[in-house]
Design brief:
mainly alpha; 93 residues
Length: 93
């Protein structure tokens, strides 16, 4: 059977290079990535490793729930202030 006929078999690594082009290496058997792009990795196994991996995704904390709530509070406060300013300008004129 040819590799193209087997749907689960991927011909090239699923990663992208630094310049944005797809990696041209072949993936490891049963994997979607080559050995250079994490094909040999089995992922985190311990709870500590999984927690470290989860925290590593948050690079700057901009998208945490707490940060989003703070931005929403600021936006609501800003809208209320602008509405008050508009009311005051209408009353003066």
């Amino acid at each position: 059977m040819k590799p193209k006929e087997i749907p689960h078999e991927i011909l090239f690594c699923n990663a992208k290079t630094r310049d944005g082009t797809p990696c041209r290496n072949h993936p490891l058997k049963g994997k979607t990535r080559c050995k250079l792009h994490g094909g040999m990795s089995t992922g985190a196994k311990t709870p500590e490793g999984k927690e470290r991996q989860r925290l590593a995704i948050l690079k700057d904390g901009q998208y945490t729930r707490e940060a989003q709530e703070k931005r929403k509070m600021f936006t609501d406060f800003h809208k209320a202030c602008m509405a008050l300013i508009m009311q005051m300008s209408v009353i003066e004129n």
